[in-house]
Amino acid sequence: MAALQPPVCDFGQQAPDFNLLGVDDRMWSLQDCMGEKGLLVMFICNHCPYVQAVHERIIKDTLELKVLGVNSVAIMSNDTINYPADCFDNMKLLAQQSAYSFPYLWDETQHIAKAYGAVCTPEFFGYNADYQLQYRGRLDASRKETAPDGTIRELFEAMKLIAQTGQGPQQQIASIGCSIKWK
């Protein structure tokens, strides 16, 4: 479970499309997920301690972003044979227990994680309303432990800026987390 840091934002890169099964048993596309002012694409999973450390903050921030016209979607791309905690039934259970306000989608083939260039969980991709990448960074200064209250909400502030201007911040700090568990 090595900690990995993904590359920084490639501004303007178009969001890859997808058609993935959600925990609500519905198929979701990129267009279905897009908000009026943008979209936050999150690669997460159930078992990663880095995700668990920010789980409550993800829930809070996505609710607040929705009010700003930015929708969110979470994608789980891990190998579920070797990591059964991330299986589809457990994804459903976590989403229900946590009252997710966003679709939680299963990338069973791992093609979508590869299309996005995702390397770790959690990993955050922020798009403007034109489907152009404007943020690829961390949620905040949390690691395997939740950062203290009062920590700068880097992801939230970046997505707020994208909602207001269509542009992300020039300064971004890469996310850190567990590697995606490739098959």
From TrEMBL:
It holds the Pfam family AhpC-TSA. This is Alkyl hydroperoxide reductase/ Thiol specific antioxidant/ Mal allergen. GO terms for molecular function: antioxidant activity; oxidoreductase activity. Residues 9-161 form the Thioredoxin domain. CDD domains: PRX_like1. InterPro entries: AhpC/TSA (IPR000866), PRX-like1 (IPR047262), Thioredoxin-like_sf (IPR036249), Thioredoxin_domain (IPR013766). It comes from Crenothrix polyspora. PROSITE patterns: THIOREDOXIN_2 (PS51352).
